Amino acid sequence: MATAKLKTTAILNGFGRTLGDNIIGLQALETAIHLGTDLGSPILYRLPGLSPVIEDLFKLADFAEIRDLPWAYSTRDTVFELGSSHERIIDIRDFALDKSFQRASMIDYFLGHLGLDPNLVPAGMKRNKWLSRRLTLTKPGLPDGFILICPTSGYDLRSMPKEIHEALLWQLEGHGPLVTQGSIPKGLEGRAISRPKENSLEDLCNLIAHARLVISTDTAMVHLADAVEVPCLAFFPTHDPTWRIRDYPLCTAVPLAGAEPLGLEFARTPDDWATARRAWSPVCKDLSWLTANALRTVA
């Protein structure tokens, strides 16, 4: 008797080119598979040239086949000619430019496109458990109980201004070992450790998992902190925090964008840069609240 052909679903640009988006997208995909959506055997078509850390991430995604999406098919303007070999195509090319993505919970956006009603998915299944179950962690060569500061983001628009990063280091000095992915300001040499961004997912996860607290403006680091159950303080200069960390019980958000978050993924004009930088001023002009509130989380 002939064996039935396994249904395949092509997911185009699954799930973008940044670490954070891919962590969340893969969580959504594993959840969709677990809950029995009609995906059959999913095939993720990714644009080539991704960073080594993201390549490491996809090596752990044993629940989907990974293929390259040629640059000729990078936008929805080009019909996906390989579509005839798949029973279903989920096209999320250019999702970062979709206003419903810019102003929504990322996990809900991906779940919806994968065929689920996000409102019916338990909050616990929206956390990054797919990743945590696949990690083998070892201790990095750093002091015990360190605080990790991540001042740069995958999108420059969201990175901490230099003066904010330096003010954070000065405010936290004396409250335990400090490790930063930025540079050490004059006067703090030898009292903080500069740790450049890791070149592998394993090293990055080991770094985060052994921190006492992560302070970040890079949401990828926030998603990883959730995966390894480490408390996190996350700064959001351009987005409503509920769009990214609503389901993370150990993460405390510092919203900077005000009552009407911008939802910007990319700077379009110099005015966008100025607006993003201004967002830091009201909360970060005086950081004396930091030790009283953030460190209480891990006391």
In a nutshell, what does this entry contain?
This protein is an alpha/beta fold and 299 residues long. The chain has helices at 19-34, 52-60, 99-102, 106-113, 129-132, 162-172, 201-209, 219-227, 242-245, 270-278, 281-284, 289-293; strands at 8-12, 41-46, 65-68, 88-91, 147-150, 178-180, 193-194, 213-216, 232-236, 251-255.
Descriptive notes:
The chain has 299 residues and is an alpha/beta fold. The chain has two domains: 8-132; 147-298, Glycogen Phosphorylase B (Rossmann fold, 3-Layer(aba) Sandwich), CATH 3.40.50. 31% of the residues lie in helices and 14% in strands. The protein contains twelve helices and ten strands. It has helices spanning 19-34, 52-60, 99-102, 106-113, 129-132, 162-172, 201-209, 219-227, 242-245, 270-278, 281-284, 289-293; strands spanning 8-12, 41-46, 65-68, 88-91, 147-150, 178-180, 193-194, 213-216, 232-236, 251-255. A six-stranded parallel sheet has the order 7-6-5-8-9-10, sandwiched between helices.
